[in-house]
Write the structure tokens for this entry.
Amino acid sequence: MNDVRAKYGALEVLHGISFTIEAGEIVSLVGPSGSGKSTVLRALMGLTPITGGDVEIAGEKMDYSSARSVREARDRMAIVFQQYNLFQNMTVMQNVTLAPLKIKRWPKDEVTAEAKRLLGLVGLAAKHDAFSDELSGGQQQRVALARALALKPQILLLDEVTSALDPELVNEVLDAVRKLADEGMTMIIVSHEMGFVREVANKVIFMDHGEVIESGTPQALFETPKTDRARDFFSKILRH
Ligand code: ADP
Ligand code: MG
């Protein structure tokens, strides 16, 4: 992302965001509520228009101005939100295989095999035939992860995927994300789980008011922040 700007109506909420992520890396976006973290992910997905700067993926400049390019962005990336929004009247397996079968029209046996692998990876091998409303929030969010991965994204975007969960369910979702990290999945993770960020992220980007204030290794940001704003934020969030 190079000097990316984004607006909601007349209000600019990203004032020139730049960062890079290498294949296999995990970058974590952190910062106060309203700082623009979700908007960065939404801009990457073509959900919020970019009004300046550019995005380049694997050497290719993205152009979000046409439906075709937005489709391409959504081929390369998948996003999982805080609200997992599973299809309630479908089984776990149907949730994971629907888009690959109906939208991508990939072969059924391959899609099914991959869905089984992914559900195993997120610890839901025994739940293929459960309906989503029979699952806990943590289980549903793990289905949402498998559903996003079934589209074979190059980059997975996670926007506070544990924030809506009861505390005892947070770890099972983080464990699933850890497994993806071990598989070498490239991820941009927005999270308030600082212990987790510290453990998995190669790079942390601290945002405030639509700008990148400071970025670096988790250790550098959490232990020796250079800016007052980062120091203030981490002292508040790491205290408890
Ligand atoms: P974060 O994810 O860091 O909490 P957001 O990216 O959601 O921040 O929001 C950045 C800014 O954009 C905030 O000031 C927020 O109020 C504003 N914003 C977010 N979504 C919308 C929207 N749909 N319409 C208008 N303003 C929005
Ligand atoms: Mg947000």
Summary: The CA atoms of residues 83 and 139 lie 13 Å apart. Residues 8, 13, 31, 33-39 surround adenosine-5'-diphosphate (ligand 1) (CB under 6 Å). The longest helix spans residues 167-182.
